[in-house]
Amino acid sequence: MPPPKDVVKIAIQMVGAIPQLIELQQTKPLASVLKDVCDAWSLPNAERYALQYADGRQTYITESNRRDIKNGSILRLTTSPDQEADRLYVGIQSKNVDVKTDSLKKLASLSQDVTFAQEFISRNGLKQIYSIVEEGNDTGEMLAHTLKAFTELMEHDFVSWENLSTVFIKKIVSYVNMNAVDASIQQLSLSILENMVPTSHLLFELVKKEVTLDRLLTHLQATNAELQLKAMALLIALLLSATDAERRDMMDYLREKNLRQFIHKNIIHSSEPLGDEMAHYLYVLQSVSLNLCEHRMKTSMDPYSQEQRDLLQSLRQTAFESESEVPAGSFSTERRRSLCAKEFRKLGFMNNSNPAEDLRRVPPGLLALDNMVYFSRNTPNTYSRFVLENSSREDKHECPFARSSIQLTLILCEILHIGEPCSETAQAFYPMFFGQDHFFEELFCICIQLVNKTWKEMRATQEDFDKVMQVVREQITRTLSLKPTSLELFKTRVNALNYSEILKLRQTERLHQEETLAVPVLELREKLKPELLELIRQQRLLHLCEGTLFRKISSRRRQDKLWYCRLSPNHKVLHYGDVEEGVQSPPIESLPEKIPVADMKMLLVGKECPHTKEKSSGKQNKDVLELAFSIVHDMEEYCLNFIAPNRYEFCLWTDGLNVLLGKEMTSERTQTDLDVLLSMELKLRLLDLENISIPDNPPPVPKPPSNLNFCYDFSHAEQ
């Protein structure tokens, strides 16, 4: 018979003693439990002891977390957090270097526990750490343990980063700026500064002033991958905390220092595989850089701005240079205005008498004008050929350069998500972005020529403008999905994907859709569905058995600790626990925490999850909500909270958990997988019917014959 809900069977260890096997009454005060345990081992002063997990992070057991103890857990009797905090508080002040170093090492380990951290901080322990950093000149093992302990203590958010003294901050900065210092100390110092920057503008200004971009670039060029990662993290934190003007200045300086080219050559194309965190930072750097275009994108043209009018006129003059060389006095004002209007019409402006009106549309606003001017100045021959070639065609077949440029700029802004906030978890960046300084403008130059090429292939007229731009959007998105590593490769691939290729792709997709809509095929689909859904269920459970690495996301940092979760092979228990960086697939025995599937009550997703409600203070990022899910267990009292690394993992895990709960799989991935499997199965079943049209309705059954005399009567057969 299973034990009651309020009783868990556990083992308790102590060094030099035989372990105790007890039934822990969860309703019994923890102090009484400790007294019973100490009495069994004849230990006085039970209040000086505490229980902690023997495996994993060795968290102290308290009244608030005791309900997390599962059947079969192994605990250890150890010194209580307050006693340990007192001992280490004295130890880190010792004059004996060995004692001090050992105490700091132990402190760095224990500070991960929130109960111990609270006890140590309440004794003004952080003040002692400040003193060790501010007054010490050591740059070895002792300092590394000190910085590690400080980082872990600050993780619990008991103390504000704004309370740090300028002396302490400058000391941390000095470790970043030193040349002859251990890499582990520089990594910890960079990590501390990264956490500090987003908390207040004053701290941002201080760090920005003390740690120069040149210094960060030096760390980025280090061969130590972890140091490189921490330097990139601080750089991204500074960029995200800066004002628009500061961010623009910083990006301009980084452009001068060829940061993009360095990243393209030494990070993206490094011999080492790119980690998830670095991929995220590169995505953010790309997003921040592209969002510098947002201001121009959202600013409409001012017809009274002389600078903007000059840019507009330069487009006309570059295209029709020989015609513009006629002296101004040769024409009347009216004739000159008529000539300009004619030239602006040839350029493809809708409102040729006042082309500024075309650029008042927001978005793309002035960004479209910037792109047109860049194209005309950097490739004047190509620009002139585009305009003159189209102005010599029949009116109805000319490709309007200006109108196309305005619409193309808008399409590129939408595809590249310009003006949208950075995702907290995304890792999707374009490698070719880092291989080019003026990426957006150069991409526009390639794509506007694509517009002209596609226009001719489609033999389009003005009425086909939207259709052409739709094809161009498809050409760009299909090519970008291939992740070309350079703009040259993008240009080659996008030009190879001509209109006829797009038509073939559409035709293939349309035929595939049509062949699956015939009534007999639909009936076959319905018959196959249950079998294929069962196959998807098995795949989901198999994925849960393999397990996934998750990251905890704290309020200050994008990513915190790593933990792993996997389902037992018999599908009865979920095992989970914290793991170290670099561990890919830990064995199930190394995951100390367990949740019986029978105790799972409900699956929550998105805004319903408790961990998203806690963090929804104004700036909760949309994509984190889309990746969050929680398992409610033990009579709806406790939740195991997840943030999936990507949408794919979110779909597989929520599906798998719904299968364990006996519910339908609801993710979009289920439908996608089902469609793929149905398509494959149908093609195999219908292989013999290739090129034979399937009727919508079955053929009529013929009437029975008037007699059955044609049947052979076996009763008269010869014996």
From TrEMBL:
Residues 307-480 form the ELMO domain. Transmembrane segments: none annotated. Coiled coil: none annotated. Keywords: Apoptosis, Phagocytosis, SH3-binding. One of its GO terms (biological process) is apoptotic process. One of its GO terms (molecular function) is SH3 domain binding. Involved in cytoskeletal rearrangements required for phagocytosis of apoptotic cells and cell motility. Acts in association with DOCK1 and CRK. Was initially proposed to be required in complex with DOCK1 to activate Rac Rho small GTPases. May enhance the guanine nucleotide exchange factor (GEF) activity of DOCK1. This is ELMO3 protein. It comes from Falcunculus frontatus. The gene is Elmo3.
